């Protein structure tokens, strides 16, 4: 947004609320294998932080991911997913066959959990960056590319 | 033309209602989807993937290709939004600035 519509009340509540939102987003990401959650939800929660910052504080919020950077990040997130898929092929497995990672763990099933965490990180980065990109493209655009 | 489309819509609705009768009931243990791979996911997902969350195990491990496609779709949606809206926004911005920049 070009002009902020934040007042002192909005600004203060934003400063209190958003750190918890971001921490909760990370929690949903890393805890996705054990409880409801996962990459898509974590990405949406992390994007809420930047979107709220833009809404409340205008063009120069206290933390920000620019539209160009966000588009690059979305590509990086998709690339992480694909790279993990192909890395298992390098180690002699099939595409996305997590059991072939050459790491010694006491339980081979843990390798699957590790691979799932890896692709969830990729999904999170992609979703977060895409939401920020779309928000940026909808509200202005002269900063974009 | 309008009458033809109306007839076509009613015809399609009739086909859908007719086929809906043949669909399995929700939660029917003997229906085709519930007898093929679902029992395997439910019984083996914890020992095979070490993830207590069955949904994540299915989404990210057994159906990894599908989720890769979903992520790519989201990425392409972002790119498409930028490609459509960037030109429109920059044109409008130029007009507001009076042609400069």
Features of the shown structure:
heterodimer; A: 145 residues; mainly alpha; 4 helices; 67% helix; B: 101 residues; 2 domains; 5 helices; 77% helix
Characterization of this structure:
The complex is a heterodimer of chains A (145) and B (101). Chain A has 145 residues and is mainly alpha-helical. Chain A has one domain. Chain A has four helices and no strands. In chain A, α2 (39-57) runs parallel beside α4 (108-138). The longest helix of chain A has 31 residues, at 108-138. Chain A is elongated. By secondary structure, chain B is mostly helical. Chain B folds into two domains: 31-62, no CATH class; 63-101. In chain B, α3 (38-49) packs across α4 (54-62) and α4 (54-62) packs across α5 (64-96). Chain B is flat and about 70 Å long. The mean pLDDT of chain B is 85.
Number of strands of chain A: 0
Provide the helix percentage of chain A: 55-70%
Profile the largest sheet of chain B: none
User: Mean of the pLDDT scores of chain B?
Assistant: 85
Concise account of the structure shown:
The complex is a heterodimer of chains A (145) and B (101). Chain A is mainly α.
Structural topology:
The complex is a heterodimer of chains A (145) and B (101).
Chain A: H1 8-30, H2 39-57, H3 67-90, H4 108-138
Helix pairs in contact in A: 1-2, 2-4, 3-4
Chain B: H1 2-21, H2 32-35, H3 38-49, H4 54-62, H5 64-96
Helix pairs in contact in B: 3-4, 4-5
């Amino acid at each position: 947004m070009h002009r902020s519509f934040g007042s002192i009340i909005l600004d203060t509540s934003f400063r209190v609320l958003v750190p918890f939102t971001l921490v909760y987003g990370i929690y949903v990401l890393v805890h996705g294998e054990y409880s409801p959650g996962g990459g898509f939800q974590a990405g949406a929660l992390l994007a809420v932080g930047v979107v709220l910052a833009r809404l409340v504080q205008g063009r120069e919020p206290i933390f920000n991911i620019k539209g160009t950077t966000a588009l690059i990040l979305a590509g990086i997130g998709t690339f992480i997913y694909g790279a993990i898929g192909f890395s298992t092929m390098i180690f002699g497995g099939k595409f996305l066959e997590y059991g072939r990672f050459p790491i010694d763990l006491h339980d081979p099933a843990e390798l699957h959990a590790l691979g799932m965490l890896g692709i969830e990180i990729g999904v999170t980065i992609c979703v977060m960056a895409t939401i920020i990109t779309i928000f940026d493209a909808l509200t202005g655009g002269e900063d974009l590319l | 033309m309008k009458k033809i489309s109306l007839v076509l819509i009613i015809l399609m609705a009739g086909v859908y209602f007719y086929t809906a009768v043949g669909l399995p009931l929700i939660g029917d243990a003997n229906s085709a989807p519930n007898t093929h791979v679902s029992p395997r996911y439910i019984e083996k997902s914890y020992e095979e993937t070490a993830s207590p969350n069955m949904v994540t195990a299915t989404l990210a491990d057994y159906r990894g290709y599908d989720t890769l496609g979903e992520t790519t779709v989201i990425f392409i949606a972002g790119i498409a939004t930028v490609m459509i809206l960037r030109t429109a926004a920059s044109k409008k911005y130029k007009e507001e600035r009076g042609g400069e920049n």
